[in-house]
Write a sequence for this structure.
């Protein structure tokens, strides 16, 4: 699902937990720089500060490709970049490596069933 991103899920869970959509006393730790949709959700939910592990040079919207957080909105989000950058990059590389491996395995199983 296109809107099933970790930031959106975390915002929804936090809002439910505290009983409000306003997360003005909350901070969020993010492995990979948020996309435009997630950056907008972070602003709209009034999150106080985000900590970004590593930047996303393809779709990042908090400084890489563009910076949604710099636009004049009614809420300003504080940002800190590079938190545990090497560890975040490793986690992401391993996640996507496993995802590709699982996909190849599923394709091979389908081919076996056809043959």
């Amino acid at each position: 699902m296109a809107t099933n991103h970790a930031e959106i899920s975390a915002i929804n869970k936090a809002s439910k937990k505290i009983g409000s959509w306003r997360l003005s006393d909350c901070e969020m730790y993010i492995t990979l720089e948020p996309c435009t949709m997630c950056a907008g959700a972070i602003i709209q939910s009034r999150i106080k500060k985000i900590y970004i592990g590593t930047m996303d040079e393809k779709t990042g919207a908090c400084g890489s490709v563009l910076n949604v957080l710099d636009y004049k909105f009614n809420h300003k989000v504080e940002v800190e970049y590079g938190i545990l950058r090497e560890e975040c990059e490793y986690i992401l590389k391993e996640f996507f490596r496993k995802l590709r491996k699982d996909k190849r395995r599923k394709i091979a199983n389908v081919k076996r069933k056809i043959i």
About this structure: The longest helix spans residues 85-114.
